[in-house]
Amino acid sequence: MSATPPLKSTCHCGAITLTLPYTPKIINECQCTICRRYAAAWAYYKVDEVTFSLVDGAKLSQCYHWPIEEKNLKNPDGTTAEFGVNTRNMDPMDVLNVDRKIDKAWLFQPIENKERAHEQDRARY
């Protein structure tokens, strides 16, 4: 990957920090119903590229908890798994010039087909 300085992604309370090895080449502004509501903008990294830090004494809620287990670190074909990091938790200046991908074809899918809405989205379309 390109030689860029590491990035930090921190939750709102500061209990969790992810250190990411490089600036992403593209940010996915997902258009599913739940990501639009949360304004999620995802960058994808391999699990073994990211360092997770937890402040001493902090307690994780289920909202933040993602169990990192050995079985989740590999894809079925044996390659290292990737996961999304919400770039909205990063310093905006660190990702200011990163290209954004917006899949506009997905934008009206939940409205046109109610079954396409995210299972946690309680909105009525």
Query: What is the ordering of alpha helices and beta strands?
Result: EEEHEEEEH
Which strand order do you get reading across the main beta sheet?
1-2-5
Mean pLDDT: 78
Low-confidence stretches: 62-68
Class derived from helix and strand content: mainly beta
Features:
single chain, 125 residues, mainly beta, three-stranded antiparallel beta sheet, two-stranded parallel ribbon, 2 helices, 23% strand, globular
Structure summary:
This protein has helices at residues 33-38, 109-112; strands spanning 7-10, 16-20, 26-28, 42-46, 51-54, 82-86, 99-101.
Describe the structure.
- By secondary structure, this protein is mainly beta.
- The chain is 8% helix and 23% strand.
- It is built from two helices and seven strands.
- β1 (7-10) and β2 form a beta hairpin.
- Residues 62-68 have low confidence and may be disordered.
Write the layout of secondary structure elements.
Layout: E1 7-10, E2 16-20, E3 26-28, H1 33-38, E4 42-46, E5 51-54, E6 82-86, E7 99-101, H2 109-112
